[in-house]
TrEMBL record:
Top enzyme class: hydrolase
Origin organism lineage: unclassified sequences, metagenomes, ecological metagenomes
Record keywords: Hydrolase
Identification of the protein by name: D-ribitol-5-phosphate phosphatase
Pfam families according to UniProt: Hydrolase
EC code: 3.1.3.-
MF term (GO), any: hydrolase activity
Matches recorded under InterPro entries: HAD-like_sf, HAD-SF_hydro_IA, HAD_sf, PGP-like_dom2
PANTHER family in UniProt: ALPHA-D-GLUCOSE 1-PHOSPHATE PHOSPHATASE, FLAVIN MONONUCLEOTIDE HYDROLASE 1, CHLOROPLATIC
Length: 204
C-alpha cells in the first residue's frame, strides 16, 4: 500500500457476493432455455445482458428482449426478480471497512453494472444503517452510465482523466483477472481477491 492514495473498487464479487447459478436457474424457470450462453461465469456478460451493462439499451428494452426470448408475456417484476437473483450478500463488515477507508483514501467504485441492479443495491444493500453510496465512495463510475465496460482500457482512462489521479498511486481491487491485467498495463496497482475473500487484510 506504499504511495497508494486512491482505491478503485469493483462491486460484484468484491463488495457484493454473486450467485450466477441461482440467476441462471431463475431465468430458466421463466422460460429462457439458452440463458447459460448469455450469463457467463466469467467477468463479462453476453447479448442483452452485455447491452444493458454497457448502457446501449434501457431497462425497458432489456425486458422486452427477455420477453421475446421467452415467447411469454412476462411481467417486468418477473424479469427483474430473475435478474436481481444474481445479487447475494454484502456483509456489513465490508461496508464498515469502506467507511473507514474513505477517511484515508480517495475511494471510488468502478463497476460493470446496470440500472436494475444498481437501483436494487442502493435500496437494499448500500442503505445499511441509513447510508447512501456517497457515504462510501467519493465517486461512482458505473458502466451503464459511461457507455464503457471493463476490461477495455477506455473506462480506466476515463477514470484517470475524470478523477485527476495517477495510476501509480491507485489500487484496483477487482475479482476479474482480465480487468486487473488491463489496469496493470496502464500503470495501476492491482489486487484480485478470491471468491468470498475478506480483503481487509490489505489495510492491516
Amino acid at each position: 500500500m506504499k504511495n497508494i492514495k486512491n482505491l478503485l473498487i469493483d462491486m460484484g464479487g468484491v463488495l457484493i457476493d454473486l450467485d450466477r447459478p441461482r440467476c441462471i436457474a431463475s431465468f430458466e424457470n421463466i422460460g429462457i432455455s439458452d440463458i447459460r450462453s448469455l450469463i457467463t461465469t466469467t467477468y463479462l456478460q453476453e447479448g442483452l445482458f452485455m447491452k444493458i451493462e454497457e448502457g446501449s439499451i434501457t431497462p425497458d428494452q432489456f425486458r422486452d428482449g427477455i420477453r421475446k426470448l421467452s415467447n411469454q408475456p412476462l411481467s417486468d417484476q418477473q424479469i427483474d426478480d430473475a435478474w436481481i437473483s444474481m445479487l447475494d450478500h454484502m456483509p456489513p463488515a465490508r461496508l464498515e471497512l469502506l467507511l473507514e477507508l474513505r477517511k484515508k483514501y480517495n475511494v471510488m467504485l468502478l463497476s460493470n453494472t446496470n440500472a436494475i441492479h444498481w437501483d436494487w443495491i442502493c435500496r437494499n444493500r448500500f442503505s445499511w444503517n441509513g447510508h447512501t453510496p456517497s457515504d462510501y465512495f467519493h465517486t461512482c463510475y458505473l458502466s451503464y452510465q459511461l457507455g464503457m465496460l471493463k476490461p477495455y482500457p477506455d473506462i480506466f482512462n476515463h477514470v484517470v482523466k475524470d478523477a485527476g489521479i495517477l495510476p501509480a498511486e491507485t489500487l484496483l481491487i477487482d475479482d476479474a483477472v482480465p480487468n486487473c491485467e488491463t489496469a496493470a498495463s496502464l500503470g495501476f496497482k492491482t489486487y484480485t481477491p478470491k471468491e468470498f475473500e475478506d480483503w481487509s487484510h490489505l489495510f492491516s
